[in-house]
């Protein structure tokens, strides 16, 4: 269970990282990075950041680029939050693939519905 302080820092980090990624992705057309969630450790030293990347075909390449530039992103975050946070937490980035998972489930359900309707039309023809 997160403490109130953890929740406040999580929201602050999420808001500021969203703004950083919005500015950076404005330069590259057609890419959208969304900060899905941020979980801060109880000692406030590590922030686990889940990113949703669109289009998902480029997600791994973009994620590799983000992890390589982790120190620069942390520095930008520290500059943005210098009056709110004494120490900027270490950032750990993870891909949030929940939207891809939902799309996959929808495809399976639609395929199942199509096969059922095809079977029903065959039954009615016979």
Structure write-up:
By secondary structure, the protein is α+β, with helices and mostly antiparallel strands. It folds into 2 domains: about 5-95, K homology (KH) domain (GMP Synthetase, Chain A, domain 3); about 100-125. Helix content is about 60%, strand content about 20%. It has 4 helices and 3 strands, in the order αββααβα. The chain has helices at about 5-25, 60-70, 70-80, 100-125, and strands at about 30-40, 45-55, 90-95. The chain has a 3-stranded mixed beta sheet with strand order 1-2-3. Strand 1 and strand 2 (about 45-55) form a beta hairpin. Helix 1 packs across helix 3. The radius of gyration is 21 Å and the shape is elongated. The model has no long low-confidence stretch (mean pLDDT about 85).
List keywords for this structure.
single chain; GMP Synthetase, Chain A, domain 3; 3-stranded mixed sheet; 19% strand
Write the layout of secondary structure elements.
Layout: H1 4-27, E1 32-40, E2 46-54, H2 59-68, H3 70-80, E3 90-95, H4 98-125
Parallel strand pairs: 2-3
Antiparallel strand pairs: 1-2
Helix pairs in contact: 1-3
Q: What is the structure about, briefly put?
A:
This protein has 126 residues and is an alpha+beta fold. Helix content is 58%, strand content 19%.
Query: In sequence order, what are the helices and strands, one letter per element?
Result: HEEHHEH
Outline, from the CA principal axes? elongated
Kindly, what is the distance between the CA atoms of the first and last residues, rounded to a whole number of angstroms? 60 Å
Radius of gyration: 21 Å
Low-confidence stretches: none
Share of helix, binned: 55-70%
CATH topology descriptor of the largest domain = GMP Synthetase, Chain A, domain 3
Number of domains: 2
Class computed from helices, strands and strand pairing: alpha+beta
CATH class of the largest domain: Alpha Beta
Mean pLDDT over the full residue set: 86
CATH architecture of the largest domain: 2-Layer Sandwich
Task: Please outline the major beta sheet.
Answer: 3 strands, mixed
How much of the sequence lies in strands comes to: 15-25%
Query: How large is the count of helical segments?
Result: 4
Neighbour order of strands in the largest sheet: 1-2-3
CATH superfamily of the largest domain: K homology (KH) domain
SS elements, strand count: 3
């Amino acid at each position: 269970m997160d403490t109130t302080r953890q929740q406040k820092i999580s929201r602050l980090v999420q808001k500021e990282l969203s703004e950083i990624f919005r500015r950076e992705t404005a330069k590259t057309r057609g890419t959208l990075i969304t900060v899905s969630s941020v979980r801060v450790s109880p000692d406030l030293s590590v922030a686990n950041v889940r990113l949703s990347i669109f289009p998902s075909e480029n997600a791994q390449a973009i994620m590799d680029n983000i992890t390589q530039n982790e120190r620069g992103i942390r520095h930008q975050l520290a500059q943005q939050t210098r009056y709110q946070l004494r120490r900027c937490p270490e950032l750990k980035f993870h891909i949030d693939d929940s939207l891809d998972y939902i799309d996959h489930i929808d495809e399976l359900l639609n395929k199942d519905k199509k096969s059922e309707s095809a079977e029903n039309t065959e039954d009615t023809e016979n």
